[in-house]
Design a protein that fits this description.
Layout lengths: L26 H20 L7 H10 L2 H16 L3 H22 L2 H9 L5 H17 L5 H31 L2 E3 L10 H6 L1 E2 L2 E4 L16 H13 L4 H18 L5 H6 L7 H30 L8 H13 L3 H4 L5 H17 L2 E4 L11 E6 L5 E10 L9 E6 L10 E8 L11 H18 L15 H11 L6 H7 L11 H9 L5 H18 L11 H11 L17 H4 L11 H18 L5 H12 L7 H9 L6 H6 L4
Parallel strand pairs: 6-8
Antiparallel strand pairs: 1-3, 2-3, 4-5, 5-6, 7-8
C-alpha cells in the first residue's frame, strides 16, 4: 500500500495527521510495517560495532519507531473517541500484537546490555537514561529466559482482557441506555435536553462513564431516577469476571518482577514511591469524608421528608442547594455557552497568564466534523503548536474527558506539539451548546493538561509535556481549574447566550457560597473509587476472586467507606481508568487526590503573589510546565513553590478540617 498516509510524516502544518486521507484499511499495514521497521532499527543499534554511547543507543531509540508511533497515536485516539465497528475489530487484533512487539524490545538482552553500559555527564541525558533503565527493569529485562517467557504470556493475556473490558464498557454506553416512550417520565429535563435525545419516537438517554448520571439531578420522577441509576451501576456485568482475571494476572506479573503486589509495582517509580505513603495520605481523608457525607445525607432526608436512596442524592442535593443558597444549577447554564467558555474564558485566562494567543484554523480538520482546530502562538508571534477540541458525546466515544497528544514535542526530532482535548457534552439538536458548571470546570481542567503539552520544551519525546509520573500528571490540570471562578475570568465569559448580559453578581455570590456544599459526597465518592482500585491491586500472591461483586462490597467495608447512600464513582464493571491499558491508572487512581495536594498549595501561591499576573504565569511555565518529565517531578514542584508540599491547604479547600 504505497499511498498509506502513515508511511511518511504528514505534510500538514505541525504534522497534524491527515485525517481526510486516513481510512480504516490503512491501519493494519501501517502497524505491520511500523513494527518491522522498529525492530530493524533496534537491531541496528544492538549490532553496531561501536561502544555504547548516549547518542548511538538512547537517542537512537528515541528516534526509532516513527511509523509505529504515528499509526498508534491516531489509531488509539480513534479507539477512544470515534470507535467504529471496524476500529474495534482492528483493536482486538492489534492489541496483543503490540504487546508482543513491546516485549521483543524491552526483553532484548543485547539492547539491555548496551543501555547498562551508557554513561553521560549531561543532566537531561542522565535523567532520561535513568528512565530507560527503570522502564527496562520494570518490563522484566533482568529476568531469566523462563521467567521472560512467562511474562510474555501474562502480558499478552492482559492485553486481550483489558481490550475486551474497554470495548464492553463502550458498547454498554448505548446498549444500556435509558429508553422511555413517554416524555412525561423525563419531567425535569428541559425542552432542549429532551429534544436532543429523541430518536424514532422514543427518548434514549445514553450512559456517561461514571455512576451518578447528570440527569439524576433533574428528573422529578423517582421511578425514572431508579431505572437510570440501576442501568448505570449494572452495565457491562460480564466485566466483573474480566476484572477479577485482570487483577489476578497483574498479581502474578508483579510477583514475577519482584514486587509483593501490583500496587507496589506501580508506585515504585511514581512520586509516592511506596504503598505506605499512599495509604497514609488516604487515611487522613476517610474519616472526615464519611462524617461530612453523613451530615449531608441528614440534610437531604430532611428536605425529602423520607429516607433517600442513592438515586435520590443528586436530586435532593439540588433542592437543598436551592433552599440553602438559593442557587439553581439550571439558572446558571444560559451563562455558559461552549464557544464563549473557550474563547472568553479558557483562552482569555491563558492569554492573560502566559501571553499566548489562539488563531482558529478552519482549513485544518480533525477526525470528526464537530472538531475545531486552533494554532497557538507566543506573545512574540513565535509558533507553539496546534490545539484541537472534540467537545461532544456520541455512541462511538468512551465516557469522561481527557487530553492526548497527536504529535509529541521534542527538539531531537524537531517536532512541535499537537494536543487534543476530549469532552463529553451532550450536543443539542439545535441552537447553542449550554454547559453545566461542572462541565465548565472539566473543560478548564483538561485545558490544563493541554497547556502542559503545549508548553513542553524538552529534547526527547520520552519526557515531553505530560510524560511525568502518573501521580503528578493531574497536578497542572487541577491548578488550571482555579481560573474558572477567578473574578476577572468569570466576568469575561459568564454572559447570557441570548442577551450578552453578564451573570448577575448575586448569582456569582451564591455559586461561590455553595462551593464547599456536597464536598463530603464528592470526596467520599472519589475515595471509594480510589480504595476500590487499591484493593483490587493489593491482592495477595495466589489470591483469587470468585465473586467480584462480593469482593467490591467487602473491600469498601474494610476500608471504612461503606456508607451505602454514596456509591463509588466507578464500580468495578465500568472502572475504565484501572482495567483498561489505554488510560493506565491501575493502582493509580489515588493520583487525583495526591496531585490535588500540590494543586491546593499552588493555588495558595498564586493568591499570595497577586493571582492572574504575567510574571506568575511565566514562573509556573518556566519552572514546571515546560520541563515535562525531563527532571524529578517533586524537584520541579519545589522550584516553583519554594518548599515541600503540605496537605493542609487541600483539607481546608474540601471542608475536611
Amino acid at each position: 500500500m504505497t499511498d498509506n498516509p502513515f508511511f511518511a510524516p504528514s505534510g500538514l502544518p505541525y504534522q497534524l495527521p491527515d485525517f481526510a486521507s486516513i481510512r480504516e484499511e490503512h491501519f493494519l499495514p501501517a502497524f505491520e510495517r511500523g513494527m518491522a521497521e522498529h525492530l530493524a532499527e533496534v537491531d541496528a543499534i544492538t549490532s553496531s560495532g561501536e561502544a555504547p554511547t548516549f547518542d548511538n543507543t538512547i537517542a537512537a531509540l528515541e528516534r526509532s519507531g516513527q511509523i509505529l508511533r504515528r499509526t498508534a497515536t491516531v489509531f488509539f485516539s480513534l479507539a477512544s473517541s470515534d470507535a467504529t465497528d471496524g476500529i474495534r475489530e482492528i483493536e482486538k487484533e492489534i492489541a496483543p500484537r503490540l504487546t508482543k512487539h513491546s516485549d521483543e524490545i524491552n526483553l532484548n538482552r543485547e539492547l539491555w546490555a548496551r543501555i547498562k553500559q551508557v554513561a553521560t555527564e549531561d543532566a537531561e541525558e542522565a535523567w532520561l537514561l535513568e528512565r530507560y533503565r527503570t522502564d527496562f527493569i520494570k518490563a522484566g529485562a533482568d529476568l531469566d529466559e523462563a521467567q521472560q517467557a512467562r511474562l510474555k504470556e501474562l502480558n499478552e493475556k492482559l492485553s486481550t482482557l483489558t481490550t475486551d473490558f474497554s470495548q464492553n464498557v463502550l458498547k454498554a454506553t448505548s446498549e444500556s441506555a435509558l429508553v422511555v416512550e413517554d416524555a412525561a417520565e423525563l419531567d425535569g429535563l428541559d425542552e432542549a435536553q429532551i429534544k436532543a435525545i429523541e430518536k424514532d419516537g422514543k427518548y434514549v438517554l445514553p450512559l456517561l462513564n461514571y455512576t451518578n448520571q447528570p440527569a439524576l439531578a433533574q428528573l422529578t420522577n423517582r421511578a425514572t431516577r431508579e431505572k437510570l441509576y440501576t442501568l448505570s451501576v449494572e452495565r457491562a456485568p460480564e466485566n466483573f469476571e474480566l476484572a477479577a482475571r485482570i487483577a489476578e494476572i497483574r498479581i502474578e506479573r508483579a510477583n514475577l518482577l519482584g514486587y509483593p503486589d501490583h500496587a507496589a509495582y506501580i508506585v515504585a517509580d511514581q512520586t509516592a514511591k511506596t504503598v505506605d505513603a499512599v495509604e497514609s495520605m488516604l487515611a487522613q481523608l476517610v474519616g472526615p469524608a464519611v462524617r461530612n457525607a453523613k451530615k449531608e445525607a441528614e440534610a437531604l432526608e430532611e428536605q425529602a421528608g423520607h429516607p433517600i436512596e442513592p438515586w435520590d442524592w443528586s436530586f435532593y442535593t439540588e433542592k437543598v442547594r436551592k433552599a440553602r443558597y438559593d442557587l439553581d444549577e439550571a439558572a446558571m447554564k444560559p451563562y455558559f455557552e461552549l464557544g464563549r467558555v473557550f474563547d472568553d474564558g479558557i483562552f482569555f485566562a491563558a492569554t492573560k497568564l502566559f501571553g499566548i494567543t489562539f488563531t482558529p484554523r478552519p482549513d485544518l480538520r480533525g477526525y470528526h466534523p464537530d472538531m475545531k482546530v486552533w494554532e497557538v502562538f507566543n506573545e512574540d508571534g513565535s509558533a507553539i503548536g496546534l490545539f484541537l477540541l472534540d467537545p461532544y458525546a456520541r455512541p462511538t466515544k468512551r465516557g469522561g474527558a481527557w487530553m492526548n497528544n497527536l504529535v509529541d514535542q521534542s527538539f531531537l526530532l524537531g517536532d512541535k506539539p499537537v494536543v487534543m482535548n476530549n469532552l463529553n457534552i451532550t450536543k443539542p439538536a439545535e441552537g447553542p451548546t449550554l454547559m453545566t458548571f461542572d462541565e465548565v470546570e472539566t473543560a478548564f481542567h483538561e485545558f490544563g493538561h493541554a497547556l502542559h503539552g503545549l508548553f513542553s520544551q524538552v529534547r526527547f519525546p520520552r519526557v515531553e509535556g505530560t510524560s511525568v509520573p502518573r501521580d503528578f500528571v493531574e497536578y497542572p490540570s487541577q491548578v488550571n481549574e482555579m481560573w474558572a471562578t477567578w473574578p476577572e475570568i468569570l466576568a469575561n465569559y459568564a454572559k447570557h447566550h441570548e442577551t450578552g448580559e453578564p451573570m448577575p453578581a448575586e448569582l456569582i455570590d451564591k455559586m461561590q457560597a455553595a462551593e464547599q456544599f456536597n464536598q463530603g459526597f464528592a470526596t467520599l465518592e472519589y475515595l471509594k473509587a480510589t480504595l476500590l482500585d487499591w484493593s483490587w491491586h493489593r491482592l495477595a500472591t495466589g489470591q483469587t476472586v470468585a465473586d467480584a461483586r462480593a469482593f467490591e462490597d467487602e473491600a469498601l467495608r474494610a476500608a471504612g467507606v461503606d456508607f451505602p447512600l454514596v456509591r463509588t464513582r466507578y464500580r468495578t464493571n465500568y472502572f475504565l481508568h484501572i482495567f483498561s491499558d489505554i488510560t493506565g491508572y491501575s493502582a493509580g487512581y489515588y493520583s487525583y487526590i495526591w496531585s490535588e495536594v500540590l494543586d491546593a498549595e499552588s493555588v495558595e501561591w498564586f493568591k499570595e503573589n497577586g493571582g492572574l499576573k504575567r510574571e506568575n504565569g511565566d514562573h509556573f511555565r518556566k519552572t514546571l510546565l515546560s520541563v515535562g518529565g525531563s527532571m524529578d517531578a517533586l524537584a520541579a514542584f519545589r522550584a516553583f513553590r519554594g518548599r515541600e508540599p503540605r496537605i493542609e491547604p487541600l483539607l481546608k479547600r474540601r471542608g475536611l478540617v
